[in-house]
Structure of Tryptophan--tRNA ligase:
Amino acid sequence: RPRVFSGIQPTADSFHLGNYLGALRHWVALQETHEAFYCVVDLHAITAGHDPKVLRQRSRVAAAQLFALGLDPERSTLFVQSQVPEHPQLAWVLGCITGFGEASRMTQFKDKSQKQGSDRSSVGLFTYPILQAADILLYQADAVPVGEDQRQHLELSRDLAQRFNSLFGKTFTVPAPHIVKDTAKITDLQEPTAKMSKSSSSPAGIIDLLEEPARTAKKIRSAVTDTGREIVFDAEGKPGIANLLTIYSALSGRDIDDLVAAYAGKGYGDLKKDLAEVVAEFVRPIQERTRGYLDDPAQLDKLLATGAEKARAVAGPTLRLAYERIGFFPPV
Ligand code: TYM
């Protein structure tokens, strides 16, 4: 079976619908056809400042949500990055074949460091995409399910795999992005041309999986829509309505065309009211199952420890091979 790898940061108290529709639903689907490795990337989560107690809890909540969304610990390997030391070990090596200019061109780094002020942003934020490449390459992943915002980072992962292979001999699989166009960029409800983002959207712009459905309904009601009153799918001209239709379609399984036909002659208010219900129906069982996992943190930690062992069984040999190719001493 081909392999998939992907990761998500535990930087908020809940994942949002952008995470789910852009990436996580593909994580769940791909475990049917692929050998799947998924990671809560807590090393990445300390690149912009954090609170230790909150971080550990958020990693648990992240894992609980992933299991609740349908990741099956029997079929997929889910683990927390800090329990697999091979990740930063390989990242060092890859950092030494990454150009300074190449890393400087990463747009997420440019955006985030600009926002924080370049004196205040960490070296970790700068080398972040190199660690991401290490994550992927350790598992010899063929495909990486992510949203559109990760495309450039994946391009770097591919470049580093190819560069290492040509410098030191074939070692890594060159991973392909798995980006499913229609939901690859879910946008902010308040700013429908920007992506829904835990770091830059206002709370009113984000739908969290774990929030109260009443709160979600209110956010959808006050979502920025477009002038005119006709419900049509026009991503350029009516990005607000297009975003709502995209979410509606993905969660309900109904085609956008079907929805547009069904709402002919109806108003934005009708669409928003129905979408709020669709979202509520969707999150209810997920919230319940997430609480179930969190009620037994010892059991959850055990599942994650087992995941980390399975991950190390793959990451360890890959790292040893890379070390040998590089000319390092063998492990003792
Ligand atoms: P992160 O934690 O920001 O986001 C997790 C996943 O959600 C996707 N996503 C979106 N998709 C559609 N619309 C949106 N508005 C939206 N917002 C987020 C992201 O594209 C991502 O797939 N650097 C990564 C984490 C990472 C990783 C990896 C990913 C670390 N190592 C290795 C893949 C492979 C990140 O910050 O994702």
